[in-house]
Design a protein that fits this description.
The chain has about 140 residues and is mainly β. The chain contains 2 helices and 10 strands, in the order E-E-E-H-E-E-E-E-E-H-E-E. The protein has a single domain, classed as Ferric Hydroxamate Uptake Protein, Chain A, domain 1 (Beta Complex), CATH 2.170.130.
Length: about 140
Amino acid sequence: MTIEGNHRVKQRTQTDSLAFFGLPDKRYMLDDYTRFSTLEEVLTEYVPEIKMKKSKGHYSLQVLNIPYKNFFEDHPMILVDGVPVFNLDALMIIDPLKIRKLEIMAWKYYYGTMAWNGVISFSSYDGDLAGYPLYENAIVKEYHK
């Protein structure tokens, strides 16, 4: 709290930042919902913007294309704490109780010359990828906030 003139002004602290893709079309704060024991149940039970398929033991996800009211045929960009996910099977075994929020961009997303069929972004409570394994050849660089 600061004092400006004769008025007390409460300072607002920023506890979250905007993702690089901007404002999501849909945000799910998972604590606002019944907590399920698998990520598969979470997505199936209350995220209509994501269609999950399982074929021959492997998962795939599709995002609703809002302007056309149908699902994209190709895969979206999937992130956990801002890190791209390439192994959906490893993602689906994450404990959903470690995930704080899920954000969805339900449009074609362009970044430079690259394009994705929507964005699905999971955020953990601790910013530790919620147990999602990094590839052995991944480069991890620490930085100070």
